Amino acid sequence: MSIREAISAGASSAPLSGIDAVINYGRGRKGLAAFWAGEGELTTPGFIREASVQALDGGETFYTAQTGISGLREALARYHGRHFGHGFEPDEFTVTAGGMHAILLALQATVKAGDEVIYLTPAWPNLAAAAGVGGTIPVAVPLYLRQGEWLFNADAVEAAVTPRTRAIFVNSPSNPTGWVATREQLAAILTIARRHGLWIIADEIYSRFVYGGDRSPSFYDIMEPEDRIIFVNTFSKNWSMTGWRIGWLSTHKSLSQTFANLVQYSTSGVPPFLQRGAIAALDHGDEYVDAQVVLARNGRDILTQSFQKNSRIKFATPQGAFYFFFAIDELADSRQVAFELIDRANIGLAPGSAFGAAGRGYLRMCFLRDTDQLKSAAERICEWVCRRT
Ligand code: PMP
Fold it and tell me: Is residue 94 within a helix (H) or strand (E), and if so which, with residue range?
């Protein structure tokens, strides 16, 4: 048996992310305009960096409380109180090493090998892949693009429930489609979860990125305290902190010790000096987020205007998040298209196939960019589409 064959089935079946496969191919090309990753180009704002540098210089280099320093959990309670309209307690929050770690802990707390977790596709690939590593079976319920809109069907979610289902993962606003669940749709999912005794893992990390209103509809708006919901979240997107690897989860405060234990046995905590920066982001970062949303909205409008001139390009104008997810008529192999766009147009996009079978034929383009970059990229894509038959 080779050394590779000796590792666990979960680890060996973990797929290379389809986004990374394209990034690996195009990385370092001269002049390549890259829109494949889920981040803008701005570095973290100074007021956040300074808070962290100060804490680091001030000696905050020791082990930290497992659920996060009390100052950060208090800041999370304030932030949620401000944006989600009711009181929150610090004990409802656990600080994690990014949104991905929050998802992992939510899975560890709710599912085991052989269980099923339902999720909506096209979907950011990491949930299904992380579930798979633990032997949990991800069950995809597709959304469909019809006449410029992604359609959600609660009956399809209900039909996907089996005796082995333990959780429903709901990402709204959605990466990659930009679909935003209405309050009624969230209520329908909650009804299904209650009826079958399922957990909801609510990924509302893009909730501030909506194009109308302060935030998207949230399970916070409709839930009762005893509902089995774990919210996963991150500092990555709102405050340009993707490389910091800091996020949080929130759930019923009676689970605080459980999550402290799960943190203990995974990362053993998030660096305390990073947590200081996170407090600054929450307490003083609302204007920064608003400006990012304006940038994203502008980006969305530019791509909408450019792509609607080309009848071969099909899309729904995103209602949230910061990705354009589009298909090109007669070009079904989006992985191949993503490689060709690198070679022929010097544009880096994420292939829709990375987001599951329902994403095949699509490409994802992050539009958290300035006007000039997006205009020029859209022109190059449209030119390439016209040349390519
Ligand atoms: N959920 C969704 C829907 C995402 O798009 C991402 C990041 N791309 C995450 C979670 C994870 O965020 P983080 O970078 O903090 O791990």
Answer: strand 93-96
Token duo for residue 267: 């990362």
Nearest CA to ligand 1 atom 6: 99
Q: Hunting for tokens 């990362």 — which residue is that? A: 267
Residue 24 is predicted with a pLDDT of 94
Task: Please tell me the distance between residue 389's alpha carbon and the centre of ligand 1 in angstroms.
Answer: 35
Which range, of 36-45, 254-263, 331-340, averages the lowest pLDDT? 331-340
Is the CB of 236 inside a 6 Å radius of any atom of ligand 1? yes
Ligand 1 within 6 A of CB of 90: no
- Compute the distance between CA of residue 178 and CA of residue 209 in angstroms, rounded to an integer: 10
Range in 212-216, 256-260, 293-297 the model is least confident about: 212-216
Task: Please work out whether the CB of residue 175 comes within 6 Å of at least one atom of ligand 1.
Answer: yes
The strand pairing partners of 150, in sequence order, are 145
Residue with tokens 């699509």: 362
Q: Is any ligand 1 atom within 6 A of the Cβ of residue 238? A: no
Cα-based torsion angle of the residue sequence 174, 144, 170, 293 in order, rounded to the nearest 10 degrees = 20
Q: What share of the chain is helix, strand, coil (3-state, %, to 5)?
A: 45, 15, 40
Dump pLDDT digits (tens) for 335-361: 999 999 999 999 999 999 999 999 999
Q: What integer pLDDT is reported at residue 388 of this predicted model?
A: 80
**What is the rounded CA–CA span in Å between residue 249 and residue 262?**
12
List pLDDT tens digits, range 175-197: 999 999 999 999 999 999 999 99
Termini Cα distance of the chain: 48
pTM score, whole prediction: 0.97
Determine the 3-state secondary structure of 317 from DSSP: coil
Q: Is residue 61 a contact partner of residue 273, using CB atoms and an 8 Å limit?
A: yes
